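Researcher: I'm comparing several assemblies side by side, and this is the next one on my list. It has 524 residues spread over two chains. Same procedure as the others: predict the full complex and return the structure.
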Amino acid sequence: MALASVAERIQISLADYLKRDRRTITPAYSLRDDLGLDSMATIELLFRIEEAFEIQIPDEDLHKLATVGDVIAYVEGKVIPAPQTSAKPATRIASTRKKSASGKKAK
Amino acid sequence: MSARVVITGLGVVSPIGIGIAEFWKAALEGRSGISAITSFADFPLETYRSRVAGQVLNFNPAQYLDATRAERVDRYAQFALVASTEAVTDAGLRMDQEHPHRVAVIVGAGMGGMVMGEREITQLYQNQRPHRVHPNFIPTITLNSASGIVAMAHGAKGPNLTISTACSSSAHAIGQGLQCIRTGQADAVIVVGADASITPLVFAGFCSLRALSTTYNDAPERASRPFDRGRDGFVMGEGAGALILESLAHAKKRKARIYAEVAGYAATSEAYHMVIPREDGAEVATTIRLAMDNAGVTPAQIDYINAHATSTPIGDAVEAKAIRQVFKSRTDRIAISATKSMVGHTLGAAGSIAGAVCALSIQSGQIHPTLNYEDPDPACALAGLTRQSQRRSIKVALLNAFGFGSNNAAVVFKRFA
């Protein structure tokens, strides 16, 4: 099975969070204006994303994350430039996929 | 005509001083009580996004409380005991001469006994030895532990209440104390606000909420900067404030010294969001107007505002907007100060410490400075906010306090005449 891209995983994560079809979430969407996330909801979403990608998003970067595309680019920037041994990211993705799969089942 | 209510005693435990004299001197000098966290220095602090706080350093409970009592109460209740004892003494309130059922205790606390709470929960979950949960765990973490202990310490047998409305808890406690006397339930009320939750879990929780300042970890004294353009979140503080409220008749009868009058109060809910205030400031403005109505004063009479001013980007902007909505062109002629710039945000204690500041400002005609107001944010420029202390005759003062849970409170104080 092909590994999901960062963009796909973020879209899945958003769709899961917002309980809506991921195909309706495009990178151009503003988190606030199009997806209706207030600042607290954005923080909750980023909390999930931090966990899923094993990254930390410092407070001073929050203002950079206005659209879905911003979040994708930000996470890609954090995850991709530090290629580690291929085993670790693969496990990470596998475990996240499992988590989101079970989340879907519960719906 | 309901009873007039006056303040006859004050007490405080704060990051800039324990005791009113030390606190007020430090406040007028503009001392910062913000420092690098030492409260849980055994934790890997570098893993916390924020690492500064307004801690009450060198607080030795044994200096104020007997050992048995001290070990049975959590840090926040120790603060409450010390502050309330100072206030009762300051007021010259002799409980042996009072009808005990006519003296109430109202405590505002947002978090309560978190020191023991966190320790016991961690131990149980790690060790799974339920019989090792401390027998004093429940009486300590119950949110009214401080109000019970304060009543016992002073023998106050009137209404004994705890108000927990997060950061507005003890502003509400002052307001409910006022109501308690106005409605004839008590002659005097020991009002206290207290919190001590610079603890690993609570602090981490506020970090996760992205509510705390994170960019001044290397310059702690600069971290709390209400209304400044460089503000980036609040700095958690700890402490307690206490005020003795009395009916004027009762205070006169015992020839008590009067700091100021508590003239009015309003409590509202924005019914909007657990942690985000309404950005247009309309609800805050309404709260201020209702408190002034309740006090029978007009916007033209307010000389001083002790702002809630936590140093969060949105909170300060909303408050400034609301102040401007209410006071319009008069706004810039009102002296304003932000106590949290010195002590941080003491959560449940904040309203009572601010209440003590209002009483002291009215009595002394001095207004403490606001630290770090270096680059006024145009979104909340307030001309009455100064980095130096001000001398100003104050006839009417306003205290603002807002809390998570969509809560607002405002209290109006008057010079006693």
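Model: For your comparison table: The longest strand of chain B covers residues 5-14.
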